[in-house]
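User: Is it possible to get a 3D structure for a protein together with its bound compound? The compound here is NAP. I've pasted both below.
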Amino acid sequence: MEFNPNSYQNMQYRQCGKWGLKLPVISLGGWQTVGGYENAGEARKVFYAAFDAGITHFDFANNYGRPAGNGEIEGGKILQDLPRDEIIISSKAGYYMWPGPYGEWGSRKYIIASCDQSLKRMGVDYFDIFYHHRPDNNTPLEETHGALETLIQQGKVLYAGVSSYSPEMTEDAVKLREKKNWFPITIHQPVYNLLNRWIESGLVQNAAKNGYGIIAFSPLAQGLLSDRYLNSTPADSRFGVQGKDKVLTELDWAKIKGLNEIAQERGQSLAQMALSWILRLPEVTSVLTGVSRMEQLEDSLKAIDHMTFSSDELDAIERVLAWQ
Ligand SMILES: NC(=O)c1ccc[n+]([C@@H]2O[C@H](COP(=O)([O-])OP(=O)(O)OC[C@H]3O[C@@H](n4cnc5c(N)ncnc54)[C@H](OP(=O)(O)O)[C@@H]3O)[C@@H](O)[C@H]2O)c1
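Assistant: Yes, that's possible. Here is the predicted structure of the complex:
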């Protein structure tokens, strides 16, 4: 395969907190877009175009795809055409993957077996980042994180991450790893977007204190923060197909339209502004978006051209988000 020799010039890279690992400010995930959801040919084209544009980080998990696992199988086939040393591949374990008591959550048994399965499905020898996908209140952190450390020691994982942990649990995990002399948590993957700002009360501050990076998943609120939904829900959209828009209120729609007006005044699409807005925080290393077609990738990539906000723009966004 021939790729754009100038790809790296187009992208900006940020360090994961204080660590040497750099990620592109826009990363690409395969949940609901790779492996049984969207057209496989389009996914391949999108991933290659992303790499050509300097996106070096691709995110998966054991349970992605239909059936679960197919996301990694199809994603692995695509990524094998990219130079392995130039990309960062992540996967995760935590959600339900196989029947019985060992197929989900955070036991040592599950984490290690799941990582081995994921490596096979993706056809790679190691993951650059491997996450505990969700908190497990019934398994001691020592067990889950001991399993992540074993994977690191075995050379199957380079960096350990956590996803959706509260600030308190993250702090406990950081402290534990420090005490045990295990390689520290490098990255946290929480949901964060204009409509879900939970990380602002604690997690962002914890990341700054402990020096790990944040990669924000669902930065477009699964597509809502785009101009696709301004007039109606398109039948071929994620919300249209899955009927998810039923839970949205008139106020939600009004806010989305209000945000779109601010984006237009900035000369951006709503999706571009939503991505740029997340990247205003220095603690955020990358936004982890999903793309179901090429024009969405092309649109979202332009977020990089306009990442700064005036205080008036930030105030205007706050005012819209505060509407009641
Ligand atoms: N750690 C976790 O628990 C967790 C949970 C969820 C996701 N993730 C990770 O985060 C990644 C991204 O999540 P996500 O797919 O929910 O992210 P997202 O970026 O919020 O939503 C992606 C969807 O938005 C729409 N879209 C994307 N770019 C657009 C554009 N420029 N204009 C208009 N519409 C656009 C598309 O929807 P349509 O296809 O409907 O057009 C696309 O499928 C996943 O692939 C996964 O790697 C992690």
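The longest strand covers residues 157-163. The beta strands are 13-15, 22-24, 26-29, 57-59, 88-93, 127-132, 157-163, 185-189, 213-217, 284-289.
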